[in-house]
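Morning!

As promised:
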Amino acid sequence: MNDANIHIADVIRETAGAFDAVVFCGLALYGIMTAMRRPAGADRWFAAMFASLAFVSVVGLVVGDGTPGMWLGRIDLAVLALFPLCIYRFTRSFTRGTSVIDIASSVLTVVVVGWSLAVSVPVDRADWTAVTAAFVVVFLAHWILLCVSSGVYFLREARASQGVSARRMRLFAGASLALAFALLLAGFGQDDGTRAQAVLAAIIQLAGVVSAVLFWLAFAPPRALRASWRSREWDSMQGGVREMVAGETMEEVRESTMQAALRLTGGTGALMLDRDGEIAAIRNVDRAAAERMLAESRALDTSKHDVRRLLASDRIVVACASAAPFFGSEERRLLDTLSAFAVLAEDRASVLGRERETSERLRQLDQLKTEFVAMVAHDLRSPMSVITGFADTIHDRWTEISDEDKLEYLRLISRNTRSLADFVEDVLQVARMESGELSYKVQPFDARTVVQRIVEDMRVAHPELTLTIDAPDELPDALGDAERNWQILTNLVSNAMKFTEGDPDVRVRISTMPEEHVVAIAVRDNGVGIADEDLPRLFRRFSRVGPTRRTVAGTGLGLYIVKSMVEAQGGRIWVQSTPGEGSTFTYTLPIAGEEVVA
Amino acid sequence: MKVLVVVEDDQDMQRLIELTLRGDRRLELSGCCATAEDAVEAAREAQPDLVILDHFIDGTVMGLQAAPAIKAAAPKAAVLLFTSHDLQLEAEREPAVDKFLLKRDIGQLMPTVQELLGLDRAA
């Protein structure tokens, strides 16, 4: 080898050394500033790691070709021995707990550092003793083992991750492996002034340069580079935001938000929180795992990179590889942005939802109104047709029909006129009730007195009816409007009579239900009963039920009015019935003085 | 004699139709029923010349919807939809319905029945 080649190799080595010094000093400075801002485990070890490399590379640069003084050489070696511990502890800061290897590595580092300060390693190998050789072997093994294990750890983490953070983790793994390789070569090198030695030294420095560049790209990649790495995620996030904002329901918005969050971070599962911080939606995780994620995310101090396995924002929590948050601070900022968009999109979906509900309610009301008008029209027309038909018949065929038939027809005209009047009255009553115009004079009253009044009324008008009262001697006053209760009971007793074939036997039982603080009034008949399938629609408007729908006079509004009146007085009504045996309608009213405040 | 079946759930209206039809001795009222199922059965048994069919009847099937089944049960019968509701358009679209008449025009019931049965009004 001629001098020129050796010279070129030396220039490469010196230039590379200078480059390494600059990069490691820069990273050390960056690490120290970050650690001062966020004094967390990973940041401290990160700063220490590059401070040690910076020290060693600056010493190398200052000393140049010369041999450092004894103590500077020893300190240089001791500081170099600290690096593997720093990189290992940096790696371990992303996992919980302390392992035996952690303790062993710390002990080994103390031993190697102490040994470095005690031992003097001659430049010429011929001068090495067995102890010196043993020290070099231990030193190299310590370095290479810890650097390689960190590299392997980050390669594994990168495989479980995606996007920019995975790329940065791979760069970090590459850097630590390159550094281990450089040191391994250095262990074999010998400063004997030969060409081989000069080339080896250049290769070592170049490996150092590769490592420095990779560390730099892993920890502080330039903005333009980050932007180009992120372009795919950015595109998919924009698509996600578009879908999210276009979502018309909360479910659609949340689904597309979580999809965008997963694409952005390369996470394995996501959950979304509602305004109260409770889980609103989950994706790729089960409920129990989501609950654990939520509890963990609440305990996070995101200002300190203490975000193992989770990237959290106000509304989105993403499960990802352990170290991903350290390498994905931008992801967290983008998640914050995504959260803000999600809130807007949720607000929009909520307004749309309310609008849909309102319009559906209006449509239903409109349909109800149309049906109501149709039913009213039908129920007005039917008796009117009968009235005019019989009146015309009597008029047109006066001489043909017998007096007996004429009387019968007049009776039918009269009955239909009455039912028409009743119907109009019921419709007006419903209209008053629904517009809130029906007033109630609520005060304590004796239910037995009201029932007795009905018994008197019915005895005269319907001698065929057997109406009995069953009530205890001690009966507390009910709270309600006595007049409205007379209407309710008259309606129920009339119904009982209408739906009974033969002589009706109606019993009114008044009792108390102390546990509910109510008086219960039950009207039981021996009528035809009600089929099970008719029970649910019994209290609806125009719900004439059973096979005798039109053969029994009625407006189809009576029970609807009854139910509305009972509920307006704070009671409830229900029916029990057996077809062929009879029905029992029971309603309740609060006991006066014992009203339960809802 | 022309045979008729009346499908009407209002007893008073049934009575009135019966009374109106009594005005022509060539008409014989075979039966009255109140549900679509009974109407189909009555049509099959009586094979009437005319069915007077109300729309709002008892049961879950309305008159207009029951018309095809009634017509199928008694193919030679004419079907007159006789109801309080203005279902003129719907009746025209239903091939099983031959004529539509509102109950308020009950005065026209007899002439309409006679026309459908091809009977001379003067008789």
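The two ends of chain B are 13 Å apart (CA to CA).

Hope this helps with the figure draft.
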